[in-house]
Amino acid sequence: MIQRILVPTDGSDLSERAALGAIDFAKNIGAELVAMTAIPAFHALTASPEMLEQTRQQYAQSSTRNGQDLLDRVATMARDAGVPCTCVQMVSDDPHEAIIAAAREHSCDLIVMASHGRRGIKGLLLGSETQKVLVHSAIPVLVYR
Amino acid sequence: MFRKILVPTDGSALSEHAASAAVALARGSGAEIVALCVAQECNPPHGQAAESAWAAQRERALNTAAQRAGQVARLAQEAGVPHSLVTAMASSEHDEIIRVAHDLHCDLIFLAAHGQCGVTRLIAGRVPQLVLAYSPVPVILYRGATMPA
Questions:
Q1: Is residue A47 within 8 angstroms of chain B, CB to CB?
Q2: Tell me, what CATH number does A89's domain have?
Q3: Class of the B4-142 domain?
């Protein structure tokens, strides 16, 4: 049976809906959650406003805080529903790689994610990171639209 | 939570594994299964002789679809999971899957990531991708790694 579910989140509304679905699902089947988020690595040459304005250390601190806030939101909702939830922050420029790695490291049986992420390009039938997870994941993926 | 899971199959080995996983999920969560197989519709030819051959072919295609859906229903039966069986014939397989999910009020679609062609380099086969793109309900794409029973 499914015992551990990976829930990647990027703070978007759709991602939150998927997280709520994952919590409901986990509660129903007695599974636990691993909530995760991926922060891009710091790059000196970048167009990202956060990275341009901050030093490496400042960026690390603020993005870790932002990531932690996202994770805390999911964890709080999970615990309110009585679902055990671990939080994992990964640093990676490739969210899909971080997702696959987290699923493996934490022995998850299922990944629950949204069809589109923060960029939410509605012209695409499926978001780019979701697509890449689907290509590389060995375990089933539950996609919320 | 998910109460009624639509499980489309195309008779492939991966479809069968996906169906087993879907049944295991249903059993664990007290849900029911709708087993579905969609036969490919093709246009009738002109001419008397061709038409009767076409009718026979349609019959065969529907029988094959019924058998394939029956296979999934059997898995559900053996696991003690409430189930029903739907056979359909349509020109657009993904549209039919979505229509059945809607008409029968299924709240989850559970299907194999690849169909008969099984080209694993793609994200998923054409039909699963289209189901995923247009489905009104969440979709589980099963890729082949076994879920613990």
A1: no
A2: 3.40.50.620
A3: alpha beta
